[in-house]
Known about the structure:
Blueprint: H1 5-21, E1 29-35, H2 48-58, E2 62-66, H3 67-70, H4 77-85, E3 90-95, H5 110-126, E4 131-134, H6 146-165, E5 169-172, H7 183-192, E6 199-203, H8 204-209, H9 214-221, E7 225-230, H10 268-277, E8 281-286, H11 295-308
Parallel strand pairs: 1-2, 1-8, 2-3, 4-5, 5-6, 6-7, 7-8
Helix pairs in contact: 2-11, 5-6, 6-7, 9-10
Amino acid sequence: xxxxxxxxxxxxxxxxxxTMSAPAAGRATIHVGITVxxxxxxxxxxxxxxxxxxxxxxxxxxxxxxWNYLERWADEPQGLKQELSKRGxxxxxxxxxxxxxxxxxxxxxxxxxxxxHMKLVRFIxxxxxxxxKINIGGKHGPGDRTADYKEMAKTFNELGxxxxxxxxxxxVHPHLGSPLQTRQDTESIMEMTDPKLVxxxxxxxxxxxxxxxPVQLTRTYLHRIIEYHIxxxxxxxxxxxxxxLHGPYNTTAENRIFFEPGKGGVDFAxxxxxxxxxxWTGWWTVELDRTGTTAKESxxxxxxxxxxxxxxx
Length: 313
């Protein structure tokens, strides 16, 4: 039977329509959030409302914060939800902090640490958060730390199992000045923990200044990374800082080691390229521990940088 002109036209258009409706191949799904804790003007529970006002006014839609900033709403989460909703915000996640027990090294504290963190998990689960990100308390002991790693891994695995059972993910954050900071610390914990239960948060600033390259971390732990904390470092520290940090640092605008993205020390485009090639899904959370101007100006700079990189904030 001969093909009609209408059928011919439709046949020719069909591949185009199919291509347009299909998801783009080789593209990461990156959700952008912001940690509302930039010193000095967003720092502390007393400045929380100011921080979400200003983050919202700049155009952010998802926030991450710390438990001690939100404890006032521990028994009234609906009150916090209302504060966020009227500013067009949702909660990305809440990190541990405040009066919570955070010593993951001491086995005698394991039960209490897990109990405290599960209270936080139940709180953020109510908000629909998809992951818990934590910092690690306790001491970074000298010498062979195998025993410390084993104790930390036990707690991480147990906490990760409970969080996974709720349909959420659990990520640990290597951080300067903590028991989880160096390349050896990171590699050991990743090796000793169950990849189905324990994931990695890559802070592009802290990992770089601890001597690691966040691009290489991305290649190595791609399938375990669930979130990046987005901050830059000085251009000369690209690929990892190899000196020693002396005295107070990042306590004033003059001794900063972290900067708004675009300074040049972190290859954000390189990280994104790897994520795009592997259709990665997760979070990029803008975080600047300290600003040289104001928190509002800093988060505006970060937003423009990420938008120029092709991300929707």
